[in-house]
Amino acid sequence: MPLKKIRVEELVVDKRIIPPIESTEDVRKTQSFIGRQSAIKALRFGLDMDKEGYNIFVVGLPGTGRKTFVKHFVSEYAQKKPVPSDVAYVMDFDDPQKANTLFLPAGKGVEFKKDMEKLVENLTEKISKVFEGEDYKARRKEIDEEFESEQERVVNDLVGKAQALGFLIKFTQTGVNYYPLKDGRPLKEEEFAALSEEEKKRFEENEKKVQLLIEAATENVRKLENLYKERVRDLNRYALLFATEEFFSVIEEKYPFSDVREFIHKIREDIIEKVSSTKKLAELEYYFRRAYSINLVVDNSDLNCAPVVFEDTPTYHNLFGKIEYIEREGMLYTDFNMIRPGALHKANGGYLIVDARELLIHPFVWDRLKKILFSKQLEVENVDTAYGYSTIATLKTEPIPLRVKVILVGTPEIYELLHEYDPDFEKLFKVKVEMDWELDTTVENISDLVAFITDYTREREILPVKRSAIEKIVWYSTRLSGDRTKLSMKLGSIIDLLEEANFFAVKRNSKYVEYEDVSRALKEREERLKLVVEKYDEMFRREDLMVDVTGKVVGQVNGLTVINFGDFEFGLPVRITAKTYLGSSGILDIQREADLSGQIHSKAVMILTGYLGSKYARKVPFSIGVSISFEQVYGYVEGDSASLAEVLAIISAISKIPIKQNIAVTGSINQHGHVQPVGGVTEKVEGFYRICKIKGLTGNQGVIIPKANVRNLVLSDEVLDAVRNGLFHIWTVDDVDEAVELMTDMKAGIMNKNYEYPRGTVNYYVVQALKQSHDIAEGKGKEKKAKKKREKM
């Protein structure tokens, strides 16, 4: 059967699909949202849908520009939406343990705050002048004198009436005392005792009358005091209203809003009460500054549209606000001035963007957010108070009506987790926006990528990018996607490469970012990360890790694996060996027996058993034992990409036909022997090339890969040059027999209707070896039966 060797033209992106430009200076149209058409449609629907529960969850892989895309698009969308009101907390004069809210048009909040600060500054001075004025003093003196005169009249009347009844009245700090009189002087106890019964009886009757007179006088004095206080209050009210009218009238005229007018009315009443009860102006000034100030928690004066807030650290307090405390003489104190806003306050009336993972790792945040979205009200409560962990008296804040669109950005795993285990999630986040991680390498999409690069270079003032550099960036994008027919949407990585290339271009005083700058950026990045690769290469060089890249060996194949260190991955060859023996039939996977095999690899070995059985054991049982091993591999083996190499090693071990060591193999097989695509083929090919280079390139070395993986090859320039110059080769196969023929230089052989293979083919030798093993096993069985029969006789 014909074997397919890949030509270098099949391994590169057609440069004709890149726009015909010399550099990004020639690009007129820029593109901010490359390849996001479906995501834009879904996101716009979620933003337009003004119904309960239609918050948005943007699903995408890290590094695909999810957050940047959402922030940019939502910011553009918000330009059409109005600016929400400013929000302030003020004192509740009916209950100082509460805080009320004021809503003012955007920009008015900061003005109102300044005007109130000026009012407070003028109040003390104005009040001081009012009470020091001659008119006020004269009127107050008149009220005082009238009160004193009436009080004196009541007292004198009481004293006179008591004296007529034979009692002396004395006023003390503890109250009113009275004593019986005789001959104009108070009686002593012994003198009172010496009185006749008739006199005592008379004094006792009069004493009751005196008590009634004292009660009546006390009540009259109390009424006089209340009247006096009322007259003083009316005087103060009139004086204060007259003195402060100019201040308050200006504010009410400037801010004709119901919230403000009600607040000003409360302040006027509070001023009269506090001035009447407080004599010290210093105390009044301190009180005015605290009580009449404005805690402006949301200032939208700088906005010209609806707010878009991205909270990158969504802790409880950062998201929902908090109430702070200060210590005074061992006591914790707070008031409305110490309320601090959260991101939800600032985003109210607009849009809040939050990283879903960050949201979930902070305690209580997800639960609290759900409650707020359900209630549509935002109330500031510290976490210990909200969840009943605090015994400290705190401030009660008036709830703020919440009108915000919450946009979570997360991975598919987080979305599935919330959707599966939280029934509230589906009720609150009804719009799913999926971000694709790759695009087809069409002319249109590459033009969009170039437009995106142009947009970024102009925005960040980066040097223009030459066409040759663009070609290398497109190559890098396809390498990130792992598919030459796809462009990666990991725009963050492309931006990083662009920035690094620009760094090297500036360093050499170039006016453009050119091919050499992009190549150097990639090389420098690899140099920073390749220490582990160098250590492995050194072990191959010293043959501490044993791999042959020349010659032929029975039962031994060079498989390929990928090592991943998170920020860097590379390919390595690994020796796979197979050994056969008489005994229990089947395949013994040494990795699995040593608990170093994953479930997928174990499944692949079982598939090998099915394939080998159906291919070779149609007329004779598979009566041979086979063990396979990944030599010098001491870690966990997972995946099925080595199954093609394993089956080649087994076929070689059974047939005793040697296998080429100059060719490495990767590919998965099914039970029909079809070769299936695998991951990491680029790294695997480059890994084997690197080892061949270390041990010496011979011109006949290469790699077998599945045919379906050709589009996944995005090779480095060095490997491409080696393929172009015939120093290294890449073959593709569709089934196991194609690989067998390439690795043995023999025909594999096709099974006929009698389940037999042509003589001299590899499959023929496999079947013959199985027959021989079966005959040996059967012969030993007959000998044992004959021996037992002789023993019985």
Automatic annotation (TrEMBL):
Gene3D superfamilies: 1.10.8.60, 3.30.230.10, P-loop containing nucleotide triphosphate hydrolases (3.40.50.300). SUPFAM superfamilies: P-loop containing nucleoside triphosphate hydrolases (SSF52540), Ribosomal protein S5 domain 2-like (SSF54211). The keyword NADP does not apply. It is an enzyme of class 3 (hydrolase). Keywords: Coiled coil, Hydrolase, Protease, Serine protease. One of its GO terms (biological process) is proteolysis. The active site is at 641, 684. Residues 551-746 form the Lon proteolytic domain. GO terms for molecular function: ATP binding; ATP-dependent peptidase activity; serine-type endopeptidase activity. It comes from the Bacteria. It catalyses: Hydrolysis of proteins in presence of ATP. Residues 200-234 form a coiled coil. Its EC number is 3.4.21.53. Belongs to the peptidase S16 family. PANTHER family: ATP DEPENDENT LON PROTEASE FAMILY MEMBER. This is endopeptidase La. It comes from Fervidobacterium islandicum.
